[in-house]
Amino acid sequence: MINCSDDDSSTETEKEAVAEYVTETKTNLLGEWVLISSSINNEIIASSEFEVLKDSRANFNDDDTYSLVYKTGTNSAAGSSISTNTQEGTYTIEGLNKVTFFDSSSEIELIDDTLKVTSVITDASGAEQTRVDIFVRSDNEALDQPEGSNTDEVEVEEETETPADTNTYDGTAVIAKLLGKWELTGATDSCLMKNTIDFQSDSVFEFIQHKTTFGRSDLLKYNIGVSYPMPAEFAASVTKGNETVDFDTNADCSFIKTSLVEYEVTDEKTVELKKSTSAKLVLENDTTLTLIYTYLNVDNEETTIEFTYVKS
């Protein structure tokens, strides 16, 4: 004899499970997704291309619609050439991480906590290529700054325009004291202690900074998109403006940034950075130099930290 009530109960349980999976998947899907990696024919694209492409976004809405907004082009000193391509469509959730996307020229897959978008593109010669883009949610922990990042790395070049130069102070005597190499003192971190400031002329100094570790946010900042999750071993060198950054997971200090910084002396003690309003130097005496850096902490509060350098 077949017990129909048992079958009905089992079916109802399965429906409830599917409904829970659909709800969970939709909760995970809704919101903004950020592009973190892009490859063409299995080769990670160049940082010059990724600089613009990394601003691409995917958005998923509660009404079962989505949009993919791609940014392509280049940025250069001569100007920008950027185009925007938007794909819009609908989606249906069928189970846990099982989503069908409609109205897209690309193949879209939700894989664990990533969104994989596979597209067929054409290169300059007309040959077809396969591009794979990986997105993660904008609130993904992989995008967070590593702990202490704000204090371990000083930004000495801002992208915004700094005020026009109106300095009339004759800093010749101060510059004579500054010329040469200065070494960080008083830090407990072994990599941080390797930081140096080298005044090479009356207008430029070399600033070398070291960090023990780096995160994906550091890579994205310098237009590097790598596979997800992060590879255990990785090395790259990239130049952006007057800064060169070396990443190497096998090095004692896996992040080294070398900056050529333009400066001017504005009085007998103060050294202003021409491309930064958040950092400045104060000559305390002939052998002591203080770097003062103001930044926004995790609570978006303005915070000031000081680093002491001594003449080597």
From TrEMBL:
It comes from Zobellia amurskyensis. This is Lipocalin-like domain-containing protein. Residues 139-167 are annotated as: Disordered. Residues 150-162 have a biased composition (Acidic residues).
